[in-house]
Amino acid sequence: SWSYYGSVGFAEQNGFLFLAIYLGVTVAFMLTPLLLQPILKLTREFQLASLADLFAFRYRSQAAGVLVTLFMLVGALPYIALQIRAVTESLSVLSQEAPPSSIAMGFVVTLTVFAILFGARHISPREKHQGLVAAIAFESLVKLLALLAVGIFAIAGIFGGLDGLSGWLEAHPEALDRLYAPMTDGPWSTLLFLSFAAAFLLPRQFHMIFTENMDPRALRTAAWGFPLFLLLLNLPILPVLWAGEALGTPVQADYYVLALTLTEGSEWFTIATFIGGLSAASAMVIVTTLSLSYMVLNHILLPASYPDPKLDLYRWLLWTRRLMIFLVLLAGFAFYALLEHNEGLVQLGLISFVAVAQFLPGIVGLLYWRSANRWGFIAGLLGGATVWHFTLLHPLLAGSALVPPVEAPLVLMAQSGLDRWEFATFASLAVNSALFVLMSMVVRQSREESEAANACCAGSLAPPTGVVTARSPQDFARELGSLLGPATAEREVEQALRDLGLPDDEQRPPELRRLRDQIEKNLSGLIGPAMAHM
Known about the structure:
By secondary structure, the chain is mainly alpha-helical.
């Protein structure tokens, strides 16, 4: 919805700054060999299904996984609410009246069904969801074609061609002046940085780039294909904005894309345009909800309430994951329902962008700083999250009269002379990075952290060392059976033996060590790295 609807509104208010969002994403994908490929290698090798899994594995900390999950859940709620709001407000543009709140709730229930169908049908979450990947690809094509069609309609149908558009711009030079004016003093670097972080740290992005990756070679195609896709997606933004201004369209600029087809186009064109926006919102919410449901299940629910070994673990995980999908969507709906909608779509999304940027210091430590430790990561994230809350989330809630206002952060922001996004980004990441570095230098790493750091930072992905006391695969199954249940334990040991091509009667200590590591990796894909390691 940000790209499909919000970009036009952002361009109206901030001119060419709207391009900074997409340039930041392009930079992230240009750094694929240094940034995305190492993360993909880790997630595939150790079966890490989410950002919380990645940090819990590197910093060998269940607390790190819980903290990342809670903060990601809170940080993503504005982004989920944005999609729900975009769908309901676009319906109001179509019907010329405010739709009842039951429509938003119906949208949430429908998304729950689709999220379960596309992303929670398999008993084991380790399996790739080809249907989901195909659906996201199709959705991307639908919204691209719909937006390009509206752009062509704006030029040919409203202005009568490129000559007509050029003539209108000559007659209205202020239209171009408004685009250039924010470029001199706008937060270019901040928006570039935030979109760079969001490109691979937002739950939806992480899930599609890494968790659902079918083939590592696809990332090399995405390195140039995704920026090209974004370029095409941005081509219609300015023609749509100018067409809306030329017609004096009586709606927010966020919804010019839909309003143009409603006032000048045919009924089928209007419906097709609405479907493009609906598919964009639906796909984002479904994938984000799937990713968050994995995190909540693996890092909060399982450690707090592990199922009885007598139960079928696979079926318990499947139905609990489905319940988590619905509860996460319900939380997004509650956030949408409680908010006063006085922020633009892009501004609402930027709150989530600043939230996920708090994970960047941890990513740098994960990939390139072996001395980084769990205490530094936890302290940094807590500090950055606190600043983010008081500079962005709290004012948003206070604007809806949900919490009392706190003046101190706003006073500091005014005294700094910085834009709200510049101040929130700089202050939160300064506190985050300082605490991360300081605590990592003061506190020594544990042996397990050091081994995980070597696995993450070294090109070899060397497994941790240690002594295996089991004498046979049957010993593994017997010990695991007390926690997983006998049937599940047998299945997991057999799966690991198949993965390694080892016989059922394997007794060589080095091979049993490999078997132990493979079982842990496989369990990590099932119940998360923290529980698997325990």
